[in-house]
């Protein structure tokens, strides 16, 4: 028995999943709230950190690794491989059989899931005035967009032409922004800044393997971000999905900000984009659920930089053996990050985007041996090496989209990471 491996707080809350009606809530006594801040301060590169609106998790070390499929698609049989590793960990008297990590956009790269040596859990993140945000960058940096803005607009135009000529209804096209720094990036400070700005979302850091062509002695690679979107959560038989689709940049001026929100709620283009996503998510969950509650229309949610159309879909599972990861992969990738129909959108992305997404628009989270867990959509994120960050942002292209508007949406979505880095917002050269 490893002393640090016990779940901090009430042991009976281990099955808690945020937002599921009837699920117990992690204790929020002052000492619990102080512990959540300590978990953030204790984060080091190589650990797994995951903060949601109701709880904070820090996992360290590797007790077991979920093996790769060994074929052409790393996602084939992934829930079964995770279940086998969790079962073996429990049989080996490991007292925290929980898999944590990241699943990629597609099976071209391997999922990064491990059973950690230790896990600490606490309540929601709480910040005081003394824990001020500071820049995680020391010295100079350079910004390099991939693709260039003009090339991205050409890609949007190409996607719109595909929709005019065939059955493609939506495709999500993304950009990356490379931030090269003179000194190592302070990942702990970056994570702190993201969590501070994202109290109602999902802040995460996941250790990734180095690229095959990395130089000997290269530092760690980390997936880090602050997602506003829950893919799926499971607690017992209760299921929650909260897809977001349809977005507008926020304004610092209150009247204009309210006008943008109102316009978003009435936008035929954005309502159509949202409906495509909700229909696909409901279709993916329905075979697993004996009841499924799908809202008739979206509501508004906001981050510090964006307005989003949101729908909370709740259900009750037919079979308790269906795990949170099984549900996540049944939904993944949703039209919110890929498009519709999925196969056509995936092909368009491969033909238009000049890079492979890796873990961007995948999912990050955890699943325990009971099948409970929580998975957030991997957006508003970056892949970080010692002196380089590769930021990502995307926009959903549907009939009615314009290249200029979609470019502006990606620039607005970059702001979450850029503001946490203390970098200016002018991402065009």
Automatic annotation (TrEMBL):
Q: What is the lineage of its organism?
A: Bacteria, Pseudomonadati, Myxococcota, Myxococcia, Myxococcales
Positions of the Chorismate-utilising enzyme C-terminal domain: 150-413
What's the EC number here? 5.4.4.2
Gene Ontology process terms (BP)? salicylic acid biosynthetic process
Q: What is this protein called?
A: isochorismate synthase
- Record keyword Isomerase present: yes
Q: Which organism is it from?
A: Corallococcus carmarthensis
Give me the reactions it catalyses: chorismate = isochorismate
Pfam families given for it? Chorismate_bind (PF00425)
Source organism, top-level taxon: Bacteria
Database matches in InterPro entries: ADC_synthase (IPR005801), Chorismate_C (IPR015890), IsoChor_synthase (IPR004561)
Return the similarity comment: Belongs to the isochorismate synthase family.
Q: Which residues form a coiled coil?
A: none
User: Matching SUPFAM superfamilies, A to Z?
Assistant: ADC synthase (SSF56322)
Q: Which UniProt keywords apply?
A: Isomerase
Gene that specifies this protein: dhbC
UniProt GO molecular function: isochorismate synthase activity
């Amino acid at each position: 028995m490893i002393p640090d491996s016990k779940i901090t707080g009430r042991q009976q809350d281990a099955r808690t999943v945020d937002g599921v009606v009837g699920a117990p809530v992690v204790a929020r006594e002052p000492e619990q709230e102080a512990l959540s801040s300590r978990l953030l301060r204790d984060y080091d590169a190589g650990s797994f950190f995951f903060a949601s609106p109701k709880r904070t998790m820090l996992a360290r070390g590797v007790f077991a690794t979920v093996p790769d499929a060994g074929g052409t698609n790393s996602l084939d049989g992934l829930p079964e491989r995770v279940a086998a590793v969790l079962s073996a960990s429990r049989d080996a008297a490991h007292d925290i059989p929980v898999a944590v990590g990241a699943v990629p956009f597609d099976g071209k790269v391997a999922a990064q899931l491990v059973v950690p040596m230790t896990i600490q859990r606490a309540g929601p993140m709480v910040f005081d005035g003394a824990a001020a945000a500071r820049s995680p960058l020391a010295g100079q940096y350079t910004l390099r967009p991939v693709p260039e803005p003009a090339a991205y607009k050409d890609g949007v135009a190409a996607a719109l032409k595909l929709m005019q000529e065939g059955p493609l209804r939506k495709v999500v096209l993304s950009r990356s922004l490379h931030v090269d720094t003179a000194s190592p990036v302070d990942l702990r400070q970056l994570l702190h800044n993201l969590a501070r700005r994202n109290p109602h979302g999902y802040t995460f850091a996941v250790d990734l393997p180095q690229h095959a062509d990395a130089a000997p002695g290269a530092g760690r690679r980390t997936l880090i971000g602050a997602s506003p979107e829950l893919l799926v959560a499971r607690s017992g038989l209760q299921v929650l999905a909260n897809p977001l689709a349809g977005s507008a940049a926020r304004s610092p001026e209150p009247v204009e900000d309210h006008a943008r929100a109102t316009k978003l709620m009435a936008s035929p283009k954005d309502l159509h984009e949202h409906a495509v996503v909700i229909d696909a998510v409901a279709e993916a969950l329905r075979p697993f659920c004996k009841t499924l509650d799908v809202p008739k229309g979206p509501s508004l949610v906001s981050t510090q930089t964006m307005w989003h159309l949101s729908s909370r879909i709740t259900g009750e599972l037919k079979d308790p053996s269906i795990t949170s990861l099984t549900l996540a992969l049944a939904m993944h990738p949703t039209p919110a990050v890929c498009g519709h129909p999925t196969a056509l959108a995936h092909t368009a992305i491969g033909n238009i985007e000049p890079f492979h997404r890796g873990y961007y628009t995948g999912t990050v989270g955890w699943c325990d041996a009971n099948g409970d867990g929580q998975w957030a959509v991997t957006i508003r994120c970056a892949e970080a090496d010692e002196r380089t960050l590769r930021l990502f942002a995307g926009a959903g292209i549907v009939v009615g989209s314009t290249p200029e508007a979609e470019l502006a949406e990606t620039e607005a979505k970059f702001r979450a990471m850029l503001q946490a880095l203390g970098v200016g917002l002018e991402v065009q050269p």
